[in-house]
Amino acid sequence: MTSPIPTLSLVDTDPAELAVDAIVIGVHSLNGDVADGDGGSLLLASGAESIVAAFDGRLTGTLALLGATGAPGEVTKLATLGTITAPVVAAVGLGPEPTGAAPPPETLRRASGASIRALAGAGTVALSLPLPDDEDAPAAVRAVAEGALLGAYRFAGYKTKPQPGRRAPVGAVVVHVPDAAEATAEAEVTRAAVVAQAVAQTRDWVNTPPNELRPPAFADAVAAAGREAGLEVEVLDEDALREGGYGGILAVGLGSSAPPRLVRLSYTPPEFDKRVALVGKGITFDTGGFSIKPAQGMWEMKSDMAGAAAVTAAMLAVAALRPSVAVTAYVPIAENMASATAYRPGDVVTMRNGKRVEVLNTDAEGRMILGDAIARACEDGCDYLFETSTLTGGQVVALGKRMAGVMGTPELCDRVKAAGEQVGEPAWPMPLPEDVRKGMDSDVADISQVNAAMDRAGHMLQGGVFLREFVTDDVPWAHIDIAGPSYNSGEPTGYLAKGGTGVPVRTLLALIDDIASAG
């Protein structure tokens, strides 16, 4: 069961007269000395005009006295005391006023998420944030709606007693627009609800304890969700994997009493020109195997299936949005444990495409299961292949915890970067140097899964170079390393909760939309 998201609707009633529990307005920071004639250093954003009028010009000064600065994502709440219909007004910071334009969509998305999270306990919240009146309006409405739904997310958890002071998430969100009956705005709200539900499903799977989501259970959950969405579903158990020659998936799963799986989900519209393959890493828990990880922080390895969760949830959204492109997801699932039956450093594994891999580090297990899944995707045929995984700690070292690393066909990597910028999931293209590949030459097999001398230089790039070995030459592909962005171990911020983030579900959906419209 996915964590519930608020209901979402549009409204064009005067914000000051909305019968809601709270209303959110935007506020900009100012470098000047005055605003609205009250001596404050704030500027209320468009959308708040009737509320400013109801407060007789005293609103910005009061917000400033309460500590509001207009900093992005800052939320300041004020009791209205009957001045307007809503009992609470919340001013969310949007940063400096943009010159000649509304705030960027990502600013609105983060502000919307932060305000809805801050208003937990309220039943219904209205958002009256600045929206452009030109061709940029749909993107702004989408951003506000998505941010609100994602900001309300809360994982149910496993506590046996109620937590004092813990307030329920906002139950309903209404977005103020100039015309609530306008078809484009209605379409954006509908899409936002589908996308947010997919992100919530991803977050739920990532946040689930690993003892409750071992490979067979995860495969069953993926298959059940796919069937319910109307997707074509195929599940390969350990016997089918052995018969099919999926040596990488089987090798990683050897150490666990919970055998591995490969799930294939397909969406085929009545008419289409392009075929997209999605591949996601599904390591339900990663001890590192015999190349065991340090104990500190190992518990976060429950999130090592974030790529699989993301591509599965993206497929659920595809089934609902019905783009004019065929999409198939390949979800390899295994648990990387250390036991008497586990695979070892020094093993040579024969992969699905026949290549033989020398195992030097059992903690480089993700690329083993992905190699098999990528090979299968290329066998089935596709025009584009996107793979995403929590593959390397090198991604975090190189790019931090918010920026994904992208490797593969240069043109497609640029496309991933553009899609990430559009939805607020930043990614940066990285090279696949030939000297990195040379360092993975093996004396006994076709390739080592890591540098043959165990040199960790360019560790993130080693992962991409290895995966390239399983992509056929005619398929444009992109590997998206989300080791950092897929999990937020810090405090909630913007529309990101603590724990699973749902990255890169929205990037994948943006890419599919782009391919459906432009090829």
TrEMBL record:
Residue positions binding Mn(2+) 2: K281, D286, D304, E365
EC number: 3.4.11.1, 3.4.11.10
Residue ranges of domain Cytosol aminopeptidase in the record: 361-368
Record Pfam families: Peptidase_M17, Peptidase_M17_N
Superkingdom classification of source: Bacteria
InterPro entries cross-referenced by the UniProt entry: Leucine_aapep/pepB, Macro_dom-like, Peptidase_M17_C, Peptidase_M17_leu_NH2_pept, Peptidase_M17_N
Cellular component GO terms, alphabetical: cytoplasm
Class in the EC hierarchy, top level: hydrolase
PROSITE patterns per record: CYTOSOL_AP
Localisation: Cytoplasm
A GO molecular-function descriptor: metalloaminopeptidase activity
List of residues binding Mn(2+) 1: D286, D363, E365
Co-factor(s): Mn(2+)
Catalytic activity: Release of an N-terminal amino acid, preferentially leucine, but not glutamic or aspartic acids; Release of an N-terminal amino acid, Xaa-|-Yaa-, in which Xaa is preferably Leu, but may be other amino acids including Pro although not Arg or Lys, and Yaa may be Pro. Amino acid amides and methyl esters are also readily hydrolyzed, but rates on arylamides are exceedingly low
Gene3D superfamilies named in the record: Leucine Aminopeptidase, subunit E, domain 1, Zn peptidases
Gene Ontology biological process: proteolysis
Active site feature: K293, R367
Free-text remark on how the cofactor is bound: Binds 2 manganese ions per subunit.
Keyword terms of this UniProt record: Aminopeptidase, Cytoplasm, Hydrolase, Manganese, Metal-binding, Protease
Role of this protein: Presumably involved in the processing and regular turnover of intracellular proteins. Catalyzes the removal of unsubstituted N-terminal amino acids from various peptides.
Family of the protein in this entry: Belongs to the peptidase M17 family.
Listed name of the protein: Probable cytosol aminopeptidase
Source organism (scientific name): Phytohabitans flavus
Gene: pepA
